[in-house]
Specification:
Number of domains: 1
Distance between the termini: 56 Å
Largest sheet: 3 strands, parallel
Shape: extended
Number of helices: 6
């Protein structure tokens, strides 16, 4: 419990500092804006790829290797995401998952990358995927086929 709470506080601090930087209260001059457009901070204003945490188990070594590979390819920001939280390893929001997120934050700082938080788990399919995956009861499931039929009860 304490470990999870600590991880939540770290994440909240990161998000707070990110927001504080974005709204420092000063209105930039035209010349400052022009300079920023001429040489933008791509970590802040560029593309942010969604980094899927599904499939193979996420380990410290794998996270470090993936982030270093992305950094070498010119990626400046990342956003970890789980399409189906029940199929992630480690399980989403478990103490091990929070530890992994803290590691990702540390690695991003080391590599000069920014970390975005995705807060819409389940968005777009409103939970049906998690329910179907839970029924499959096999984390290696790659395909779930749904069958429907139209008709009336009298037929």
């Amino acid at each position: 419990m304490t470990r999870t709470l600590s991880s939540v506080l770290v994440l909240a601090s990161v998000l707070h500092l990110s927001c504080a930087e974005a709204t420092d209260g000063q209105v930039p001059t035209y010349q400052e804006l022009r300079a920023q457009f001429a040489s933008p901070n791509h970590a802040r204003w560029g593309e942010v790829p969604l980094w899927w945490w599904e499939g193979d188990r996420m380990t410290k070594e794998r996270v470090t290797w993936q982030l270093e590979t992305l950094c070498r390819a010119g990626v400046k920001s990342i956003c970890p995401i789980q399409r189906s939280p029940g199929r992630c390893d480690p399980q989403s929001f478990s103490p091990e998952w929070w530890d992994m997120l803290v590691l990702v934050h540390q690695e991003c700082q080391r590599l000069g990358m920014t970390l975005w938080a995705y807060d819409q788990v389940g968005y777009g399919h409103y939970g049906w995927l998690e329910k179907a995956a839970a029924k499959a009861r096999d984390p290696r499931t790659k395909r779930i086929q749904f069958l429907t039929a139209d008709g009336s009860p009298q037929e």
